Amino acid sequence: MYDREADALSILLADGEVEQTKNIAPGVEVDFDFEGRVLAIEFLNASTKYDIDASGMEEPDPYYSLAAAAELYGLSATTLRHQIERKVLTGVKFGRNWVVHIDDLDNYVKERSRKAKPVRSA
Fold first, then answer.
1. Are the beta carbons of 38 and 14 closer than 8 angstroms?
2. What are the sequence ranges of the domains in the chain?
3. 27-72: per-residue pLDDT in tens?
């Protein structure tokens, strides 16, 4: 993702809380979580180093980590992982983590609500 205002090109690898940012080379910073996993790589002053035309850049497909998807839909990340294992929900393994596409999440939630048992009123 390119941020024109900050002139920074970021590669987001995983969701998580940034514990530490290290400058690994001039103009290159890496964000780490509490366990030392890489969350993102950021290239500063990107337009001076790379041929960037943000108007021609495509928006990335909206994939969500299971934690982000669970929060977005009010579900459990564990349930989503089990549904992926049961092939009820389509997921993609990204490193050690699973991610799901927004369209697959929407379809799963719609199908789940269709199968929900009606609540009887007293």
1. yes
2. 2-56, 63-115
3. 999 999 889 989 889 989 888 887 776 555 556 668 888 888 888 8
76: left (phi over 0), alpha (psi -120 to 50) or beta: beta
Determine the Cα–Cα distance for residues 94 and 38; give it in Å rounded to an integer: 13
| β-strand partners of 43 | 9, 28
Query: Using CA atoms, how far apart are residues 30 and 14, in angstroms rounded to an integer?
Result: 12
Query: If we measure between CA atoms, which residue out of 91, 81, 95, 77 comes closest to residue 38?
Result: 95
**Cα gap 51→15, rounded to integer Å:** 27
